[in-house]
Amino acid sequence: MATLSAESSAPPRRLLRSTGAIFSGFISVFVLSLGTDQALHVLGVYPPWTEPMYDSGLNALALSYRVVYTVLGSYITARLAPHAPMKHALILGGIGFVLSLAGAIGASGMNLGPMWYPIALVITTLPCAWLGGYLYRGK
C-alpha cells in the first residue's frame, strides 16, 4: 500500500518540478532583460522609456543580450528539469515564441522603433531555447 501511495504522488510532484523549472528560466530571462534595459535607460544609453528607440545599433544591442539571456534561461530550465531537459527548454522557447509573436503583432500598430527588432525576437527565440537545452545536455 505504501508503494502505491508513493507512486501516485510522483506525477504531481514531477509536474510541480517541471513547472518550477520552466518558471525559473522564464523569470531569469525576464529579470535579466528588464534589468539590463533599465540600467541602460538610467545610464542614458537608451532614450527614456516613453520615447521610441529608432537607432538600429541600440536595437541590435538589445537583441544581443536578449539572445544571451534566452540561452541562459533555457539552460537554467534544462538544468532544473526533473526529466527530459531539452523538452523543458523547448517548452520555455515555445512560451517565449508566443509572447514575442504577440509583442511583434502589437508593435506593428505602434511607432516604437524599427520593426525588424520584434521580428528578430520571434525568429531567435526557439533556436536560443534549443541552444540552452543543448548546452546543458553537452555537459
**What's the rounded overall pLDDT mean?**
92
- The domain tally reads 1
Based on Cα principal axes, name the global outline.
elongated
* Binned strand content: under 5%
What Rg, in angstroms, do the CA atoms define?
18 Å
Secondary structure: helix percent: over 70%
Order of helices and strands: HHHH
Terminus-to-terminus distance: 39 Å
Largest beta-sheet details: none
DSSP E strands, number: 0
Report on the architecture of this protein.
With 139 residues, the protein is mainly α. The protein has one domain (17-137). The chain is 81% helix and 0% strand. The protein contains four helices and no strands. It has helices spanning 2-42, 56-80, 85-108, 116-137. Helix 2 packs antiparallel against helix 3 (85-108). It is elongated.
Record keyword descriptors for this entry.
single chain; mainly alpha; elongated
Give the SSE map.
Layout: H1 2-42, H2 56-80, H3 85-108, H4 116-137
Helix pairs in contact: 1-2, 1-3, 2-3, 2-4, 3-4
Brief sketch in words of this structure:
Helix content is 81%, strand content 0%. With 139 residues, the chain is mostly helical. Helix 1 (2-42) runs antiparallel to helix 2 (56-80), helix 2 (56-80) runs parallel beside helix 4 (116-137) and helix 3 (85-108) runs antiparallel to helix 4.
